[in-house]
Amino acid sequence: MLRIVTTAILIALTASAGATEAGWALLREGEHVVLLRNAMAPGASEPANFDIEKCSTQRRLSERGKLQARKMGALFAARAAPTERVLSSRYCRTLETARLAFGGAEEFAALDPPAADETARKQQIEAVMQEIRGYSGSGNFILVTHLETIQALTGQTAREGEAVIVAPEGDGLKVLGRIIFN
Fold first, then answer.
1. In CATH, what number is assigned to the domain containing residue 35?
2. Which segment of the chain is annotated as a signal peptide (predicted)?
3. How many domains does the chain have?
4. pLDDT tens for the chain, residues 1 to 182
5. Which residue range(s) make up the domain with 95?
């Protein structure tokens, strides 16, 4: 039984490493869109006193998350993955991820977690899709956001600090690759 479990873990790790290498190959070409989930931040929801204007009332990056964000930036540079534009949710953990990895980002409210109101949610997702469809740079376009936003856009999940490489397809997005930053 131990042998089966060990083999399954090794297969999963090998597949993950292969997917990450394929993702880097895409990003070296440039001209790709990357949905990047914020780096590691403890907790699962915002505190009751949450205020978008005050970082002290929000979930923040852990020390491990700060290291992870720095590693992201270092790997983008080392892997020659050109970055042209970076947008971020207004939440402090996404802005800090963008600052530590890429030196900063433009705030873009549509990258905040999707609104509870269905009409507002659709408008928010459409605003993100317009940015993605309108991108025509030669480097990569990075959007630092949240799990819920990535799920709303792709129907897939992402780990903290995971990059999901996407391209517009019809009314939605097609996932082209992934990069896992541990």
1. 3.40.50.1240
2. 1-17
3. 1
4. 555 544 334 333 343 444 578 899 999 999 999 999 999 999 888 888 999 999 999 999 999 999 999 999 999 999 888 999 999 999 999 999 999 999 999 999 999 999 999 999 999 999 999 999 999 999 999 999 999 999 999 999 999 999 999 999 998 999 999 999 87
5. 2-180
